[in-house]
Write a structure and sequence with these properties.
Layout (H helix, E strand, L loop, with lengths): L1 H14 L1 H4 L12 E7 L9 E10 L5 E7 L6 E5 L4 E3 L8 E5 L2 E6 L3 E9 L8 E13 L4 E13 L7 H11 L4 E2 L4 E6 L2 E7 L10 E4 L12 E4 L3 E7 L9 E8 L2 E9 L11 H22 L6 H14 L3 H31 L13 H18 L6 H4 L2 H4 L4 H14 L8 H8 L4 H24 L1 H4 L8 H8 L1 H46 L5 H18 L14 E3 L2 H9 L4 E6 L4 H11 L2 H10 L2 E6 L5 H9 L7 E5 L6 E2 L6 H5 L4
Parallel strand pairs: 11-18, 12-18, 19-21, 20-21
Antiparallel strand pairs: 1-2, 2-8, 3-7, 4-9, 5-8, 6-7, 9-10, 12-13, 13-16, 14-17, 15-16, 17-18, 20-22, 22-23
Helix pairs in contact: 4-11, 4-12, 5-12, 6-10, 6-12, 7-15, 7-16, 11-12, 15-16
Length: about 675
């Protein structure tokens, strides 16, 4: 019923337009989405041109629409009035957002956005010529209750000149370019069967993606409002959703969102998609479930010998040695420990599946994609290591007596939960196949896989608890237990070191420094706490609050992204327009290539031709400088350079011989292609 209310309110508004016509709708008065036509350069050069933009600013609560608005709405239309010698390219929209109203999917922009286009100036237009550009634009402004058609007569007065761009204008347009979808470079395939469409999108397993959603550029591919399931299968993304009715097949285009207003323009053609719905027999699926369950059970069992888990298992084994022959206590604590592990694994698995069902491209240990979680794990493992080393006492960690009360059941449960959570940085054998299968199986079977993982992780302690003969082989309690406990601190310190390295991989040296500094401050805090405990004093609450404050401040101080590492080699440098000009002025040969972590063709060429020993030897002998442009994060400077070369995406390979213009190389390279350049 809500959609009918929207229609009726809109019709009522339009019926009253004799008064409202000049007050907001159809370009009169103040619009709900303000529009301005701006140019990157007010003096475009002849034979080149500039980028222009419709800068759109919606009022709070209002939104505009993408070029394919979805189930409802309307994209922008423009009628141009241009002077002779001036042409305008197609409109280029940023990656949109999703908005579901009354079950209808809308592809929208709820904040300021810009629609870009390229303005070209003929080479024979004389400098100083005035270029009046006029555009009559129409767009739709909506809230979740009402829509208002708006329009505007937008003007832009340019003068042919030298193409200079002010620094502020460059920064503003670069900010808009970052949100344009980048061409993926590799072709996708799709298949439709039983009312479902499944796409296979080439996307390297090492490339990060989150908040994934597929936006078809035209009708006929998918039902917009249907849920989209995204899974990873090696170097590809598999996207499955409801197929649109009346689809005609053939080649289609879509925008694949892989982050906050970040995405790729992909082309897909009909073809085979491995693992499509209905392609696996029931018996085969049952076999896959059993194999995955067995792999998860065995993988969880082997996790116990990993450095981040074994110390905790060792402590629990010593706890059993202390328990002696109290079978009831031992078994109850073993069950509580197992419940903590299984429920934590199940919770992590359910959250993982929910994130993927919502479009996130995440995998097991997905928490480690967030540097704040890595920092939290680093501090937690550091605290455990110093506890094992004897720096301070944590009763709830070892026996659980303070937390557990009677029988220590709560202590055992939370120790199991801790084991499951700390185990996520470790990847043991047999786990990859099991976790990969869990992401493709039906929900009940997938959750069973995570239960199997937890059961395997808890199995050694269960066996010790329920097999007295095995438990009787444990050494009797004695002074040796203190020495073993201190020895178990060593693998935990190694785990902490690994987490610090992982933090450095994600946020560079500054991130690693912050992590190590936080761990050092935590060690000083625990040293203070241990000193008070030796004199029978408290301080645990103060230490816990200080540790929480340390984690919060460290998380805020972490860099938002890893810094770019400068290339130190004299024959291999990062891309820069100024640096390229200097090398060419010095008559040095330059091989310039543009790549990205998400470009499969790029990575294949690097492995097969660029990073080969014979290629490096030939380039070094000829004094060739290799210049690399990494477009993984949509560097605006690279975007401008690609556009100047008539390209909209990667890969791009250019060879600059001394004193000559660039030679564009084919997109598929061989070692011979490159070594022949210097012969």
């Amino acid at each position: 019923m809500r959609i009918f209310q929207v229609i009726l309110m809109t019709l009522a508004l339009l019926a009253s337009l004799p008064a409202a016509h000049a007050q907001g709708a159809f370009g009169g008065g103040k619009a709900h989405i303000a529009a301005r036509l701006v140019a990157e350069s007010a003096a475009p050069a002849p034979g080149a041109g500039t980028t222009i933009a419709f800068a759109m600013t919606p009022e709070a609560g209002w939104h505009g629409y993408w070029e394919n608005p979805g189930d409802a709405g309307l994209g922008m239309t423009v009628e141009w009035t241009l002077p002779k010698g001036v042409s305008i390219g197609r409109l280029r929209y940023p990656v949109p957002e999703t908005l579901v109203i009354s079950g209808l999917m809308n592809h929208v922009y709820e904040g300021p956005y810009a629609v870009l286009a390229t303005l070209k100036v003929a080479a024979d237009i004389a400098p100083g010529t005035r270029l009046p550009v006029r555009a009559r634009a129409q767009w739709l402004a909506c809230t979740d209750k009402v829509c208002v058609p708006e329009s505007g007569e937008l003007t832009l007065d340019l003068v042919v000149g030298d193409g200079m761009v002010a620094a502020s204008d460059r920064t503003r347009f670069d900010g808009w370019r970052i949100h344009l979808p980048r061409p993926l470079g590799s072709e996708a395939t799709y298949a439709v069967k039983d009312g479902r469409v499944r796409l296979s999108v080439p996307f390297p397993a090492s490339a990060r993606a989150s908040d994934i959603h597929l936006f078809p550029l035209a009708e006929g591919l998918a039902r917009y409002a249907a849920a989209q399931t995204v899974t990873r299968d090696g170097d590809r993304l598999l996207i499955e959703t409801d197929a649109a009715e009346g689809g005609k097949g053939g080649m289609v285009q879509a925008v694949l969102r892989t982050g906050d207003h970040v995405g790729f323009l992909l082309t897909a053609r009909p073809g085979h998609v491995a693992g499509a719905s209905g392609g696996q027999a029931i018996g085969g699926q049952a076999g896959a479930i059993l194999a995955a369950l067995g792999g998860a059970l065995l993988g969880g069992l082997l996790l116990n010998i990993m450095p981040c888990v074994f110390p905790i298992l060792g402590l629990k084994a010593m706890k059993l040695a202390k328990a002696g022959g109290d079978e009831r206590t031992v078994r109850r604590e073993a069950l509580a420990y197992t419940a903590g592990i299984i429920l934590t694994c199940l919770a992590l698995g359910a959250l993982l599946l929910a994130l993927r069902a919502a479009g996130g491209a995440v995998g097991w240990a997905f928490q480690l994609q967030d540097p704040r979680i890595i920092l939290a794990l680093l501090l937690l493992v550091t605290a455990i290591a110093f506890n094992l080393a004897g720096l301070f006492d944590l009763g709830a960690y070892g026996g659980g007596d303070r937390l557990a009360g009677k029988g220590g059941l709560a202590g055992s449960f939370w120790t199991g939960a801790l084991v499951a959570f700390v185990a996520t940085p470790c990847t043991g054998p047999f786990m990859a196949a099991a976790m990969g299968a869990a992401l493709l199986l039906p929900l009940p079977a997938a959750l069973a896989i995570f239960v199997g993982l937890g059961l395997g992780l808890a199995l050694p302690f269960l066996l010790l608890a329920y097999l007295p003969a095995l438990r009787n082989r444990l050494p009797r309690p004695g002074a040796w237990m203190g020495r073993v406990q201190k020895m178990l601190a060593v693998p935990m310190f190694l785990t902490a070191l690994g987490l610090a390295w992982l933090l450095g991989q994600q946020r560079g040296v500054p991130g690693m420094t912050i992590g190590l500094a936080a761990a050092l401050l935590l060690a000083l805090l625990l040293w203070w706490l241990g000193g008070r405990q030796r004199f029978g004093k408290g301080g645990g609450l103060v230490a816990a609050l200080a540790a929480a404050a340390l984690l919060a401040s460290g998380s805020l101080a972490l860099p938002s992204r890893a810094p770019v590492v400068a290339e130190k080699s004299e024959t291999r440098v990062q891309f820069g327009v100024q640096k390229l000009a200097e090398l060419r002025a010095a008559n040095k040969p330059v091989f310039l290539y543009f790549t990205a972590d998400w470009c499969l063709t790029c990575k294949a060429n690097e492995a097969a031709a660029i990073d080969r020993a014979e290629t490096r030897a030939a380039f070094e002998q000829a004094g060739v400088t290799v210049m690399v442009g990494d477009w993984t994060n949509a560097d605006p400077a690279i975007t401008r350079f690609l556009e100047s070369q008539g390209r909209s995406g990667v890969p791009l390979y250019l060879w600059y011989a001394p004193g000559r213009e660039a030679l564009t190389l084919p997109q598929l390279l061989t070692p011979a292609t490159l070594t022949d350049l210097v012969r």
